[in-house]
Structures
1.
Amino acid sequence: MNIRLQINQDFTNLISPYSKKEYLLLEEKLLEEGCTEPIVTWKGYIIDGLTRYEICLRHDIPYEVEEMRFSCKEAAMAFVCKKQLQRRDLNFETRKFLIVMQYEAEKYLNSTRSRTYTPWRGTDAALSLDSVNYTESPTRHTTAQRLADENNVTHATIQKYAIYTKALLSIGAKYPEVLPKILAGRLKLPHQRVVELSKLSASELRRADFGEEQKTYSIQMNQPHRGRPPRKNTVVAPPPVRPSVKDMPAFDPDAPAVELSLTVPSWTSSIKRAHKNINAAIVSDRAKEKLKDVLCDLQDTIAELLALIEEE
């Protein structure tokens, strides 16, 4: 008989939901092979395997439970973030969020719990960071640099992600329903827009314009099933009409991508040339910081563009 497990929203907010396609594949695998991986818990709360647990309950599939031991909730949250960041299907918003949540959890664990650091104040409704204080101590710098290396970003990038995450948590505390939609990428909001929305009250947020929620539909929804005649009174969508050369729009949708593909190599050449000619020993700190800032901005822009073109 399966053990009933507990679900805590603080951990659930860190677990990125599966896409419909991935969910169906996992469900099919569990039905055929059974649950071969244990559901991982801490104090009875699920911290890994939430989707497997839900499917197993629905189909009465037996599962095993592995109880982890952590010194505190922050250690368990750092574990959840690290596991989630290993997933290849994470969108850019969720990845930023998890990197900062892991950083804050580990920063708390590494701190001496002095008065200068405000601990976590998680609630069942949403997670919250009371402050994002980046006054660097050696331990904090080491933690941030290690996480930056693990996630192929810079230390400065983690600081930028922290501003975004703090704003998201503020929104989630006042309007919990919208947080998972932003993290799932169904609501596409620029960084600055998220920060602006975080300053609104709960009532103002519910009236605010978050843009149109993006949904995905199966291509076969408007097509008859192959090999089977359509039922009577069934409206079958006509095949799409291919536009002729005369009907082609003046705007070429490939133009921005092609133009960028031709421009970027010159940037790469300039960066390589500068790399050979710059003598870091004699360059002023001011010049170094300015170059570092623009390179971090470029890295962030590249990461966002890669995430955009890799979306299905």
2.
Amino acid sequence: MLLSRIAEELCVPFFGNDVEICSIEYNSKRVEAGALFGCIVGLVSDGHNFAKQAVDKGAVALICERPLNIDVPQLIVSDARSALAEAAACFYEHPERSMHMLAVTGTNGKTSTTYMVKSIAEAAGKKVGLIGTIVNLIGDERIDTARTTPESADLFALLRHMANEGCDLVIMEVSSHALVQDRVHGIMFDAGLFTNLTQDHLDYHKTFENYLNAKKLLFRQSKVAIINIDDPMAESMKQGLTIPILSMGIQNSADYRASGIDITTSGVTFHLHTPHGDGRINLHISGLFSVYNAMGAAALMDCCGYALKDIIAGLGQLSGVAGRLQSVNTFAHSIAVYVDYAHTPDALENVLTTVHGFAKARVIVVFGCGGDRDKAKRPIMGEIGGRHSDYAIITSDNPRTEDPMTIISEVEAGVKRTGTPYVVIENRAEAIGHALQVAKENDIIVIAGKGHENYQEINGVKHHFDDKEVVEELLSKHR
């Protein structure tokens, strides 16, 4: 594609001769011959400082926010991030326009909701693209992901791949970081869903109001807003919206409601009420939060015209989501073990409350907090872990570049306030082993914080570590 075509779409002039663009790139290390390089200004580095390196590697043109003394054509823009997204959308010939585009944002529930949407669409015979935290999917094809929402150049390349593979629908997790950083700029979603908002990512957003406003950005590029009316932030999310708003809820009157809820160890059943009919839902994922996720998925698919029978069938055939209240094989031991990605106060409270609902004996929790992230939530997490368990084991999560014991001490301060018996074991494998050793008949162990992750990041280095694997390995030795 010629640079002039991209410049025309961006409505900016360019300086220099017209050139053929073969790829769009923002990472100078990945630049190949014929690339258009976007000089993104990030939190840590400024892409303008890597423009010369990109050109030396083969970049033939630049998107930049100021003229650079480099002899290649340059598109001078006021915001390189949004311009990069527009350039990528143009280069990949707007794949988002050929598929239903759905988005989920919120502190918790995004991943599970996207998998529910995928299951519903597949029950209707459609091919689905899924973009999210665990992995990106094109039907059954798995594509590793480095972040919840890819950078715009990577995202539009992925969407083009999905369109070429015949996807009818794309369901995306959209993070607050992605919205602020214009990673999904240029996409008009058929519907956007807000699940909930609780404390997280304040290391980045600084204030809860900023965090809320970041999430709200999704509805600037959605045709319909679907909002969890039971969430305390619902009214704030609705304020000022000019697009149609649909609500979902249990406690309050809503367009999509659930009643007759029955939660068991194996899942949850409930009656779903929608504007287009009612039906009984049988989910193989336990917890009240799963009901909210299912309602959100149903609302998204209803907006796209999917039949209620396919919604019921799709939700019923989903067996579970990796790392979301995932049961671990205990090889006939008389205990139960679950791993869960809960790494926010609300998520930890939800999973522990759910487990307490069907526990016959003690609930033992193994948890910590990640490093280089929102420090304010650590004592809150500690207090929730203590208050909703019978025995707490505080351990290391992903300390990243922080001292693990510093993080643990901040979590410990919250646990102490509850009076719940607890122990500190920094080594996560040893902490899991201790939980298995002290567990008695009918006890339930919840290992929280990492869920689907198969690594532990220590001093900036990722080491292979999988909670589920550790449990199974330890228990297999004592069969």
3.
Amino acid sequence: MLKEILSVTGRPGLFKLISQGKNMLIVESLIDGKRIPAYTKDKVVSLGDIAIFTEDAEVPLGEVLEKVKAKENGGKCSIEPKADNDTLRKYMSEVLPEYDRDRVYPSDIRKLVAWYNILINAKITDFVEETKEETAVVE
């Protein structure tokens, strides 16, 4: 699900991929539902391609969002994205205790909280794709 959700540099909020053209993408804002073009000059990143640094590896953003959802019982974040840096760091250590404090900045945590709230408001709550295990049938 997160592969279709995009962040476009220079534009606030998150966008859902609607269509692709030759030199642009048509995206729809998750905040107000307006459709806009995102051109090749715009930096567009899929949330499915983002990961959070930890002490020993990188954790996909979907897994981190699932941990936030579990902490908040599926509701909106208990802190505001504009909270002070110490509050943000404390919140992040509750959600992902092993996050890398040197490489994950307060601005990254602000984005995480803001994006989580946008996704919850847009009723997007499945952050990790279920992988179906195939069972071999022996005849």
4.
Amino acid sequence: MLDAFVGSIGYWNALWVLCLLIFVHELGHYAVARWCGVRVETFSIGFGRELIGWTDRHGTRWKISLIPLGGYVKMYGERMAPGDDAVGDAARLSAEEMSTSFAHKSLGARAAVVAAGPAANFLFAIIVFAITFATIGRPQPQSFAEAGIGGVVADSAAAEAGFEAGDRVLSIEGAPVETFEDLRDAVIASDGAMLRFEIDRAGQFLILQAQPRVFELAQDDGSSVTLYRLGVQGPSPVFVSAGPLEAASLGVTETWRLSVATLTAVGEMIIGSRGADELGGPIRIVELSNDFAQQGLLALVSFAVLLSINLGLINLFPIPMLDGGHLLFYAFEAVRGKPLGERAQEYGLRIGLALIFCLMVFVIFNDLSRFDL
């Protein structure tokens, strides 16, 4: 019932998935800022006009804003240069104000606050993976020789010959079959000739004959390859639950694997060995969210985890305006012993803004091109 509800709410899936990931990201900034003693003035999901909000006992304004394409945490003293005592044109910071000002925290503390956003996205992925592996389990392949055929395609050569799910294929034309690849290779090499199958069906020995059907597999260059198809599926994987420690370890491993795969894909796009048409923007996210929602809650949560990893990685790119850009400025500050000048930071932010704007235009163009617009 829950899966049906998630699938029925359509494109609202993208909204709650994005809001969840934005909340996780900004919560990382907020939590570490508070831990470092920084006063947080605003925690916003979205930009623009406030739709709903409240102020907590620490003076932080929590709000949901009109445009849900991001979020921010505004910290006291964030826009000041480290060491500045002036607030506005005249007043000066008191000792208490300086103790809660972001700009007056140590370089390490400021870097920790900035890095906490992407770290929260990775931690979210690890936790969700760990819970999934501990409860639902992780898929593990079954032996084809033991489990047999996983399913039979309707109106296929196998269905016509009388194959059933669970049939164990012992041999084809006298050649023993141990793996699903053995069956596939024999069918491909048959040239469409009638094949004789020895079958074990729940302990009963059967002989079935089937003639694989021809089909044309299209190639990227426009040509096609002639292949043959029987119409059976391999055994479905089984899900094996892991213990808490193993699940946590698997969560870290899977998050790392997806992070490396994402960075590898980005690197291939940069050097030109992979097409950039895979990049998508808001429209693509909405489309994929809806597609995954139709497959059930677990599929949609898996998509949210993948988006969370991507959000963490993107924010670590050394581009001004992103968290990685701020960390780059802090790296220069650590080397120089003092922050970059205001003009250098201003030019860096302008360049970063231009790069982000160009990227947004590009991904939106990719989105629209899928609809021939």
